[in-house]
Amino acid sequence: MQKFLTIFTPTYNRAYILPKLYNSLKGQINKNFVWLIVDDGSSDETKTLVQEFQNENYIEIHYIFQENKGKHFAVNKGLRNTRTEFFCVIDSDDYLAENAVEQMEILSGKIENDNQIAGFTFIRFSEKTNFDSGKYGKKEWIVSGRAEYDWEFPGEMIYCYKTAIHQQFCFPEFEGEKFCPESLVYRRIERRFKILFTDKVLAYGDYLEDGLMSNYYQLLLKNPRSSLLNIKERFQDRLSKEEKLNLAKTYWDIASKTNRPFLEKFFGISPFLILKVLINKHKKQ
Fold this sequence. Notes:
Shape: globular
Distance between the termini: 67 Å
Structural class: alpha/beta
Strand content: 15-25%
CATH superfamily of the largest domain: Spore Coat Polysaccharide Biosynthesis Protein SpsA, Chain A
Radius of gyration: 20 Å
Largest sheet: 10 strands, mixed
């Protein structure tokens, strides 16, 4: 039977923690999914470990190895190798509640025939967060365009997209850059399609010290083309004057510190905002 969902995990030297995610997948009430792993050039025992998982034959597992290029390259490869209707990224340091796939199949059924809805969401909490489970899992709402409000919970949304739609919005790939903000692609999808948001808590995990987010600003500096492109995308949102100015400051700072060409620095976004940034910097000196 054709599975409805690909749970996609990009991983890099995470053999020490992958069993936690695997055990949560093995324990799913509903096993109507494929676990697709793209190994982004690991030098640890990841490949051997995944082979052990496959040999147990509890769930369907596909494994792909690529040279180390970065998470967004891995996601693009995962999308190119997905045959199921839905695609959801679950990172190697996360794990799922035992009813996660069951709930995801119910949600997918609500939107699969609506061409205007690209996917649905659920909440990922820190495993250290104490919360009243009775308050969650009751809300569902459709968002058209970029979601512009403060979340009422101390977690983050995980997105599950229709594969055919997500495949139209792959990450830009710049040679030598190993990081691209996920929000860049999410924004592009949300400008074209609606999203079914929910308050279901279906995933848990915490950022690890060896994770991408451990030093976010340094990531932006090491990957300037992706970072600057993401800022340009954010200017398409509805922003206050203060938000625009702060983004312009960040844009100029990244472009300057990474020696981007002058035309890209000054005209990449609004030159009037860049000029204002430079005037303000001069006044403070």
